[in-house]
Amino acid sequence: MDDASKEDFLDLEKFLCFSVYAASHAFNRIYKPLLDRLGLTYPQYLVMVSLWQEDDQSVRSIGQKMFLESSTLTPLLKRLEANGLVVRKRDPEDERSVRVRLSVEGKALREKAEEVPACILDATGLDIETAKRLNRDLQELRTQLERGAKKL
Amino acid sequence: MDDASKEDFLDLEKFLCFSVYAASHAFNRIYKPLLDRLGLTYPQYLVMVSLWQEDDQSVRSIGQKMFLESSTLTPLLKRLEANGLVVRKRDPEDERSVRVRLSVEGKALREKAEEVPACILDATGLDIETAKRLNRDLQELRTQLERGAKKL
DNA sequence: TGTAATTTAATCGTGTGCGATTTAAATTAA
DNA sequence: TTAATTTAAATCGCACACGATTAAATTACA
Questions:
Q1: What is this structure's pTM?
Q2: Which of A45, A54, A113, B95 has a Cα-to-Cα distance from B84 of 20 to 30 A?
Q3: Is residue A98's beta carbon less than 7 angstroms from any atom in nucleic acid strand D?
C-alpha cells in the first residue's frame, strides 16, 4: 500500500462504518423529541412497532427481528412493562420462553405513534424511492457483514 | 392514509432508520474481534483514527468531527489515557480547553491498526465504488437529518 | 473597568448494547 | 429412565451516548 492510500485509510470521512455510525446517532437525535411525547426511547419504539405489527411475541422472536441479545432486551422490556405498555409472562407451553403482549395502553399508543414515520421521512429530505434504495443497500450490507463476521 | 400504507409504516424492515441502526450494530460486531487485538473499543478506535490523522486536538475538535458530546468523550478519553495511548492536558493558552495528544504507544499502535480497514472493506463484500457511493449517501442523509432536527 | 454572556470540560443519572455466566426448562442421547 | 446437551431468559460488569447541570475561564459590552 502506498502512502496516499494509507492517508485515505485514516480519513474518518472516508470510513463507511463511520457514516453509518454517525447517521445512526443522527436518527436517534431526530427521533428524540417525537418519542419523548410518547414516553418512549428509540429502541423501545422499535420494539413497540414490532409488537404493533405482531402482538404476543417471545423475547427470542423480538431479538431475532431486532438483532439484539436477551441481555439488552430483558431490561428494556421490563421498563416497557413498568410503564404499563406491555405484559411479560412465561409461556405455559414452554416455560423457558417469555411471551410479550401489548397492554390496552400499549395498543392505544399506536394511534399517537402513527404520525411519526411521516415526520421522520420528511426530516430525511429523501423522496420515497431514494429512501427505499438506501434501505435495500443497507439491508444487504448488514446481511453481508453478518456473513463476514464468521470469517474474522 | 389508507390501511395498506399504515401497515407499511409498521413494518420494521421498511424503516430506513432501522436499517441504519442494525447496520451500525453489525459493523460494531465485525470490528470487535479485530479491535480486541488492539485493546480498543470501536468508538475508541475512531478517536485514535482521528488523532492519527491529526495529533494534538482539543476535546471540542474531536467532538465536532465525531458528533459526540463531552459527556461521552471525557470518560472515553480518560480510558484511553489510563491505557497509556493518549495524554490529556489543559491548554495553557486557554485553560477551558483540554488538548489530547498521542503518547509514544498511541503512535506505535497505528501500524498494528493499518490492516483493519482492508479487513472491514473485505467483510462488507462491497467493491470500492459502491462503498463510496453508499458513504456519500449516508453523509448527505446525516447532514439533512441535522438540518431537519431544528424543525422538530 | 466590571459585570454579563458565552464557551469548554466535567459530572451525574438514565438507558442502551454486548460478552460471559447462570439458572431453569426442554430435548436428545445413552 | 437417567444423563448429557441444548435452549431461553436473566444477571452482571463494562463501555458508550445523551440531556441537564455545574464550574471555571474567556469574551463581550455597557
A1: 0.92
A2: B95
A3: yes
Q: Do B141 and A134 touch (CB under 8 A)?
A: yes
Residue B64 contacts A, CB cutoff 8 Å: no
Residues in chain A: 152
Question: What does the DSSP 8-state code read for residue B38?
Answer: T
The pLDDT > 90 percentage for chain B reads 80
Q: Which nucleotides of D are covered by protein (CB under 7 A)?
A: 7-13, 15-20, 24-27
Task: Find the closest chain B residue to A3 by CA distance.
Answer: B114
Per-residue confidence band for B148, with pLDDT thresholds at 50, 70 and 90: confident
Of A113-117, A135-139, A142-146, B2-6, minimum mean pLDDT range: B2-6
Task: Say if CB B50 and CB A12 are below 8 A apart.
Answer: yes
- Decide yes or no: CATH 1.10.10.10 for domain A40-105: yes
- Nearest Cα neighbor of B8 from A121, A108, A34 is A121
Which sequence spans correspond to the domains of chain B?
Answer: 39-109
Instruction: Give the Cβ contact number of residue A39 at 10 Å.
Output: 13
**For residue B87, what are the CA distances in angstroms to B52, B93, B112?**
14, 17, 20
State pLDDT tens for residues B16-56: 999 999 999 999 999 999 999 999 999 999 999 999 999 99
Residues of B in contact with A124 (CB under 8 A): 16, 141, 144-145, 148
pLDDT tens for B128-146 read 888 999 999 999 999 999 9
